[in-house]
Structure formats: structure tokens, C-alpha cells
Amino acid sequence: MKFFIIGLGNPGKIYEFTRHNVGKLFVLYLGENKGFFEGEGNFFYKEMDYGFLIIPTLYMNESGIVFEDLKKNL
Q: Does the N-terminal or the C-terminal CB of the chain have fewer CB atoms within 10 Å?
């Protein structure tokens, strides 16, 4: 069984190291030294042995759009 680990956060320098981006920072930590994230549009992803690491490019309150895109693309 493969898992999706989605690191929610907000784009922009203003949120970079704030509580708003803890999920995003955690996913980046999990993917550290495992190659680059791929993708364009509403999310970036990296395939791992256990599933996919997902980093949305939208604001947290727009995360539903990312989930719809994931269903279509991965």
C-alpha cells in the first residue's frame, strides 16, 4: 500500500519558517537527500518507497484543489 504524505503550507517568504509551514517543512525533511521534487502547477511530488511526498503550491485554504489534482494525476 502506498501513502500520500501532504505537507500543507502557505507560499511566500512571509510564511517560510512560521507555524503555517510546519507540514511543508516536515515533508521537505522527509525527502531530504532523496532527489528533487518534480511537478508543476498546484503541487510538487517525490516518489518514495512507501508512497508520495506532496508539497502543494497553493495556500492552505485552497488545499482541496490539490487533492482533486492528485486524484487526476498520480
A: N
